[in-house]
Design a protein that fits this description.
The complex is a heterotrimer of chains A (374), B (338) and C (287).
Chain A: E1 4-13, E2 16-26, E3 31-35, H1 42-50, E4 57-62, E5 65-66, E6 77-80, H2 92-97, H3 109-122, H4 138-150, E7 156-160, H5 168-182, E8 188-193, H6 196-202, E9 205-210, E10 213-218, H7 220-225, H8 230-235, E11 242-251, E12 254-259, E13 265-267, H9 270-279, E14 284-288, E15 293-296, E16 308-319, E17 322-329, E18 332-339, E19 349-354, E20 360-363
Parallel strand pairs in A: 3-8, 3-9, 6-7, 7-8
Antiparallel strand pairs in A: 1-2, 1-4, 4-5, 9-10, 11-12, 11-14, 12-13, 14-20, 15-19, 16-17, 16-19, 17-18
Chain B: E1 4-12, E2 18-27, E3 32-36, H1 43-51, E4 58-63, E5 66-67, E6 78-81, H2 93-102, H3 108-121, H4 137-149, E7 155-159, H5 167-184, E8 187-192, H6 195-201, E9 204-209, E10 212-218, H7 219-224, H8 229-234, E11 241-250, E12 253-257, E13 264-266, H9 269-278, E14 283-287, E15 309-315, E16 320-326, E17 329-335
Parallel strand pairs in B: 3-8, 3-9, 6-7, 7-8
Antiparallel strand pairs in B: 1-2, 1-4, 4-5, 9-10, 11-12, 11-14, 12-13, 15-16, 16-17
Chain C: H1 2-37, H2 56-63, H3 78-109, H4 115-124, H5 130-144, H6 150-175, H7 178-186, H8 191-220, H9 223-228, H10 236-241, H11 251-271, H12 273-286
Helix pairs in contact in C: 1-11, 2-11, 3-6, 3-8, 4-6, 6-8, 7-8, 8-12
Classes of the chains: A alpha+beta (374), B alpha+beta (338), C mainly alpha (287).
Chain lengths: 374, 338, 287
């Protein structure tokens, strides 16, 4: 085990900048999740740490050792590939044992046997040891790939989308198994994913990546609640956060954010008002999470109720254990989370309340969260 | 548009594999029904029999009042959107959509009108000149739907229509489908293995397993009143928890006893009475993760309590998920965030 | 439904009949060759089919013909020609493997300027009829002292074997995900062991199929050995021609020679059949 440090790491493929000036420190034994859409540079980063891609510039340290010029087989890094990359002509047992038979990590046969058996038990694949990869399901392949990375007891463990190709039910189960497994994994680990649920659930720390640039580093729930910019707010949460173009105005002495079409008005809290005064921008983008909008009974005094708006049902869906109501309000569509037992008919009128103190405000030009507290 | 009626339908393959057994199902005129089940449950065989790609071993199938058992696929007026889209690669989108109309010698103006109509409805009017190879996954899906819909079929079937799309496209298409169905009111059957999709889109859900129809009903019926443990466990995500126990009669009430004594639950009277009359030796207590709560203090009045050990806790932004162990059984709890 | 299955059955019978007809058509020359090789000279040109099998022809080829006529190939030399063919075909394949496998790998994996041009150049060796280049080659070979030497022949046969190996193996290497190599690097192996332990076993079917085809092409090659070789390097293909002369045509002996010279190919093909079927169908589609 060792700490890991990336300093100004950059990778260009021709004109394309896959990873741009990335600086990141991972503490000894820490479990970091790297979240980003495809093409964000996650896999390239892992491959540079493993040494199978050469950085265009920047440095990689494992422990206190600069490893830029160290060949992959001398780095003591293990990696589970998104494509599994199992050796097709070797059985599961041989796949698992292969790293331990290498010149770099050669162990006595008895020890290899012990480790392979132990990791196979941990991952519950002991009954598959004599099979070839082509006879495994995706879930099983994924476990073998994971096992091959874990069997080494490496200094740094790199996991590239280890459960993203499984179907929803299996992914849910594997995520929880992984969470339970985490207690046993004491290696310095980087886990790459595009699934925000894995990101929120698994990491000690979360790194959000977009177009090769780190957007935000923090504790998972902090990043969820306090995203640094619009991109980060969008990548976490399902349905996606509702974003509304708006301006800040004073109406009858009340400071409000008002949507471009005037249909949505949200009263500003004190902290928002101060932040907006400081920014003094023309346009803002309001971000409201679906969990912070609620359907309320329509009443006689609707017009004067603050922080509400009216719309019509575009569609209502039940997803998993909750309902998602998509409503048309003026020019925009809003997604709202509701209990799963509710029901709405298409084109019904609804009244929506917004939790004003949970609203996020972004500067439309810079895309930054103006309420962001570092 | 028409009603589809399956009466005692059987499908037996060579070698005696019974894919579908005594299927009785009516899809009402204009209804959106999901045929849901795990792989190998017989839903694809059913779909293929409806479309006419597979012969019916026994039973009768009606579209409207027509008995269609012996009709060739093209005579049934049924449209199918394939899982893999099955677009014709050398033809442009426009020609793909118009293909089946041209086969029927419909006048060109009429073809043009109908193609434009579905293309506008599915928002693909701007890509009509492209070839399938130039389209994204979502666009291909729309074109394949347009091709199926342009025929104005009596029954419209979709085979796993979303399985090759990414998450965002899938969410988008689900919404669009639902709107589309509300607008056209066409008799529609969605075949899927994904309960999330079935629940999200369909008005009624038919759950199949091992070739046998388990239950047909609205979401409310299959979610709150499942006929058996399979349906209960299949519908809903995260899936329902099951706790095995032995019913014991105690002072007129029914108490569920874990084998190893890890819990004792007094069942509500109504449920208790039913357990008594069933005379079951062992029963499974089923409870959805959203209907469990975590308490640390004294039990609240009227609530059932089980002691459990925490395995993991996940903070997932909009909710928390707690996995716990009750003796040997894993139990999942969905908790609101504090 | 009855009609349908009836027409299905008819179609099945018809397609079987066509296949059997083709089978007979394709196999006929081989059977005919075998028959001729077992016939005595008198029965070669009869109008009715007469057949009294004899092993005389084989004996004559292998151990010499007591009744040899002038102008016919010297007797006991056929075994030496056979050996020549074996040396040349095997040598060509070995040399091609030595250079072709790394070349195919490089063409599959690395990006470099002119890659496709280079790959195409290799392939283009197969386009030109051998006769077009044979005269200048013959002149060159004489000047370089390669004429009628094993090395010279092996070198020129690379024109036949190398392009085949490179193009078949390239598609095999392209099919192996780079992730697998990278995984092995991270697992602690230097590149040459990865090549040996992981990559080679994975391309083995392609390797077997391509090597066999290359062997057959080299073995059957006729123009090069005819023009660039002489008494030292005479191969079976050239030698078989020797049974036909203006004086007398020993079609039966030529057939016997052909039968014997096809034995190595058949033995090889059978021994690696397992790889061959997969390799040929797969590589053919991919390549």
């Amino acid at each position: 085990m060792a700490k890991l440090k990336l300093e100004g790491l950059t990778k260009n493929f021709g004109d394309l900048c896959a990873v741009n000036n990335m600086t990141l420190e991972v503490a000894d034994g820490e479990f970091v999740v790297m979240l980003g859409p495809s093409g964000a540079g996650k896999t390239t980063t892992l491959k540079m740490i493993a040494g199978v891609e050469n950085p265009t510039s920047g440095k990689v340290y494992i422990g206190d050792r600069l490893v830029n010029t160290v060949e992959p087989h001398k780095r003591n890094v293990a990696m589970a590939f998104e494509s599994y990359a199992l050796y097709p002509h070797k059985t599961v047992r041989e796949n698992l044992a292969y790293p331990l038979k290498s010149p770099a990590n050669r162990l006595p046969d008895a020890e290899i046997e012990r480790r392979v058996t132990s990791v196979a038990e941990t991952l519950n694949i002991q009954m598959l040891l004599n099979r070839l990869p082509q006879h495994l399901s995706n879930g099983q392949k994924q476990r073998v790939a994971l096992g091959r990375a874990m069997v080494r007891e490496p200094e740094v463990l790199l996991l590239d989308e280890p459960i993203s190709h499984l179907d929803a039910k299996l992914r849910h189960r594997m995520r929880q198994e992984f969470k339970a497994l985490e207690a046993d994994i004491r290696y310095t680990t980087i886990y790459v994913t595009h699934d925000y649920l894995e990101a929120l659930s698994l990491g000690d720390r979360l790194v959000v990546l977009n177009q090769g640039v780190i957007q935000q580093i923090g504790l998972p729930h902090e990043v969820f609640e306090n995203p640094v910019n619009i991109f980060v707010s969008k990548i976490l949460g399902h349905p996606q956060i509702n974003l509304v173009d708006c301006t800040a105005q004073n109406t009858n002495g009340v400071a409000q954010l008002i949507s471009a079409d005037g249909t949505v008005r949200v009263d500003l809290t004190d902290s928002m008002r101060q932040a907006i005064e400081k920014q003094n921008a023309q346009h803002y983008t309001m971000g409201i999470r679906p969990m912070h909008m609620h359907v309320v009974e329509a009443g006689a005094q609707d017009a004067v109720q603050p922080n509400t708006c009216s719309g019509v049902v575009y569609v209502f869906e039940r997803l998993g254990n909750k309902g998602v109501l998509t409503a048309t309000v003026g020019q925009q569509h809003f997604d709202l989370l509701t209990p799963i037992e509710m029901d709405f008919a298409i084109d019904d009128a609804v009244r929506i309340a917004i939790e004003a103190d949970k609203v996020m405000v972004f500067n439309s030009d810079t895309q930054q969260n103006i309420l962001f507290a570092a | 548009m028409a009603e589809l009626r399956l009466e005692h339908i059987y499908k037996t393959y060579k070698g005696g594999v019974e894919a579908v057994k005594d299927l009785n199902l009516t899809v009402k005129n204009g209804e959106f029904l999901a045929l849901l089940g795990p792989s190998g449950c017989g839903k694809t065989s059913t779909l293929r029999m409806i479309v006419g790609l597979e012969s019916i071993t026994r039973g009768e199938m009606y579209i409207g009042d027509r008995l269609v058992n012996k009709l060739e696929p093209n005579a049934r007026n049924v449209a199918l959107a394939f899982e893999t889209y099955a677009l014709y690669p050398p033809l442009r989108v426009w020609e793909n959509i118009a293909f089946c109309l041209r086969a029927k010698s419909i006048p060109p103006e009429e073809i043009h009108r109908r193609v434009m109509e579905v293309a506008t409805m599915l928002d693909i009017a701007n890509i009509l000149e492209r070839k399938p190879s130039e389209l994204g996954g979502g666009e291909k899906q729309r074109v394949s739907l347009a091709r199926a819909l342009v025929r104005d079929p009596d029954v419209f079937l979709m085979d796993e229509p979303l399985s090759h799309l990414d998450a965002a496209q899938r969410a988008n298409m689900r919404v669009e489908f639902k709107r589309l169905h509300a607008q056209t009111g066409r008799t529609t059957i969605l075949v899927t293995h994904d309960q999330l999709e079935a629940v999200a889109m369909a008005e009624r859900i038919a759950v199949m397993n091992f070739g046998v129809l388990q239950q047909v009903g609205s979401f409310e019926e299959v979610y709150n009143h499942p006929t058996n443990e399979f349906v209960a466990g299949f519908i809903g995500e995260p899936p329902m928890n099951f706790l095995p126990g032995k019913p014991v009669s105690e002072n007129g009430a029914t108490v569920l006893d874990a084998k190893d004594g890890s819990f004792r639950i007094r069942l509500p009277d109504a449920a208790g009475a039913k357990v008594q009359t069933s005379k079951a030796e062992l029963v499974d207590l089923g409870i959805r993760p959203v209907h469990l709560e975590v308490t640390r203090g004294e039990p609240e009045l009227g609530k059932l309590e089980i002691a459990a050990t925490v395995v993991t806790y996940e903070d997932l932004g909009e909710e928390g998920q707690l996995a716990a162990k009750v003796s040997e059984t894993n139990v999942l709890v969905v908790t609101p965030l504090i | 439904m009855e009609n349908k299955s009836g027409s299905h059955r008819l179609a099945a019978v018809l397609s079987d009949a066509v296949l059997i007809a083709y089978f007979i058509f394709a196999l006929f020359p081989i059977v005919w060759m075998l028959l001729i090789s077992l016939k005595p000279g008198e029965e070669l040109f009869t109008t009715r089919f007469v057949f009294h099998p004899t092993l005389d022809n084989y004996q004559a080829i292998l151990f010499g013909d007591p009744r040899a006529a002038a102008g016919v190939v010297a007797k006991q030399e056929f075994p030496r020609y056979f050996l020549n063919s074996l040396i040349l075909a095997t040598g060509s394949v070995v040399v091609s493997l030595l250079f072709g496998v790394p070349a195919a790998y490089a063409l599959a994996r690395y990006k470099f300027k002119g890659k496709e041009d280079l790959a195409f150049t290799f392939l283009s060796f197969r386009f030109a009829p051998e006769l077009v280049v044979i005269i200048p080659l013959a002149v060159l070979y004489r000047q370089l002292g390669l004429y009628d030497t094993y090395w010279g022949m092996i070198w020129v046969l690379q024109l036949v074997t190398l392009p085949l190996l490179i193009w078949v193996l390239r598609s095999y290497f392209e099919d192996i995900s780079p992730d697998i190599e990278q995984a092995a690097m991270i697992d602690g192996y230097p590149w040459w062991r990865i090549f040996w332990n992981i990559l080679l076993p994975l391309v083995r079917p392609g390797l077997a199929a391509a090597a066999l085809l290359a062997f057959i092409f080299a073995w059957n090659s006729f123009i090069f050995p005819l023009v660039l070789g002489a008494s030292n390097t005479t191969t079976v293909t050239v030698a078989a021609l020797g049974y036909l002369s203006s004086a007398q045509s020993f079609f039966n002996r030529m057939a016997a020679a052909a039968v014997i010279s096809s034995i190595p190919q058949i033995v090889l093909a059978l021994s690696i059949q397992r790889y061959l079927i997969r390799g040929l169908s797969f590589g053919a589609v991919k390549g």
